[in-house]
Design brief:
By secondary structure, the chain is an alpha+beta fold. The protein has six helices and 18 strands. 41% of the residues are buried.
Amino acid sequence: MKKLVLETQGRDEGQRLDRFLASRGGLTRGEARRLLDRGAVWVNGQRVKIASRPVHEGQEVSVFIEEAGRSEPAAQRLEPERVLLEDAHLIAVDKPPGVPAQATLATDRGNLLALVSAHVGREVGLVHRLDLETSGVTLFAKTRPATTALAAAFRHGTVQKRYLAAALGTLPDEGRVDLAISPDPRRWGKFRALPGGKVPAATRFRVLARRGLLCAVELFPETGRTHQIRVHLKALGAPIAGDDLYGGPAEVETPTGRHRAERVMLHARSLELPHPATGARLAVEAPLPEDLKGLLVAAGADPCVL
């Protein structure tokens, strides 16, 4: 029997427990409900079997998993070139696409949290998450005070985040989307943008270049909701290339030829935030992956400003 502990964050506020388990654990909702039914889920030390129970920020959700029949991936290590910045208080790494940010209910190995913890030599604190297919800057705390300080910086909006995406649609040159993010009741794991919703979200954006419907877009999320950038661009009629969940095409025709979008073409390019120990302003940048760079250049973007 193995115990997996998940900590709820601001973006999880109000989400049903079965949805939370599924979204963070890489399961179907049916599988999450079966875990609940057999009493394998505890919230803040109390067993919970009610799938519809909402979770709240700061809760500890423990799941007890039977190891029989579970397949574990081969052990991996963090590639040295993925480390962007490291000191006694924190470590920033460049997350590869396709690597989960933390343990799922399918496996607790091969995720970024485990890889970074192995690199540091002790367990680190994950203070924010990127979606599975999103690449770029991810920050971890090495000490409990740093975890508290960094989590507060994200919660209070003192972290400036810059993303780059290849989107398909007719976007204005710049703007701000402030539509709330809510789960889509028609499909598990999907979200939608609604005016006047319960979970406010805001994203500023600027189109760097465009050719036809292909746009190179930089985005500055002011909040950190699940799928926020993806949902907001979808709401503007310009889904991200490769994002089949929100209508983004897997192939893009450009003046330089046809490009395949094998993943969601979204990258966390940089973070600026106060250092958790000194308060000095800290800037971290992750190099642009070649797959996304090719699409952004095809849209007419100058590589020097990406």
